[in-house]
Amino acid sequence: MTIRLGLSGGLVPTDPAAYVPALAAELAGLGVSRITTHLRTPPAELVASGEAARIRRLLADAGIGVVQATGYQPCLVTADATRLDADLERLARAGDAAAALGSPFVLTGCGSLHPT
């Protein structure tokens, strides 16, 4: 069995622009070979702009892969059909962003029935 050191949060930025060669080198220097991303850029924009592919290449060049990408917090338990449709669409686009990042996995919750 192979064990790899991964990282989520902390040194892993939420701003795509923060993914620069110095960051990748720092993470690789710590022995990190896998990360989880929680990018705050909307997933469709992340893919269309090419940022997801750029991040994937930058990290891969340093020997780092993305194993989990954010699902952008959809609410899948709402009674509001319009919101549910929009959130399901955002979750689908999160899958596109994950694929562009090279991640086989999207992490998301189901949301909440709490009114606030």
Layout of helices and strands:
Blueprint: E1 5-8, H1 21-29, E2 32-37, H2 43-48, H3 51-61, E3 65-70, H4 81-101, E4 106-107
Parallel strand pairs: 1-2, 2-3, 3-4
- Order of strands across the main sheet: 1-2-3-4
Structural class: alpha/beta
> What profile does the largest beta sheet have?
4 strands, parallel
Distance between the termini: 44 Å
Helix share bin: 40-55%
Order of helices and strands: EHEHHEHE
Q: If you average the pLDDT, what whole number results? A: 92
Q: With helices defined by DSSP (H or I, 4 residues minimum), what is the helix count? A: 4
Rg, alpha carbons: 15 Å
* Total beta-strand segments: 4
Q: How does the overall form come out from the CA principal axes? A: elongated
β-sheet strand percentage: 15-25%
> Low-confidence segments, ≥5 residues, pLDDT <50?
none
Can you walk me through this structure?
The chain is elongated, with a radius of gyration of 15 Å. Strands 1-2-3-4 form a 4-stranded parallel β-sheet, covered by helices on one side. It has helices at residues 21-29, 43-48, 51-61, 81-101; strands at residues 5-8, 32-37, 65-70, 106-107. The N and C termini lie far apart (44 Å). By secondary structure, it is an alpha/beta fold.
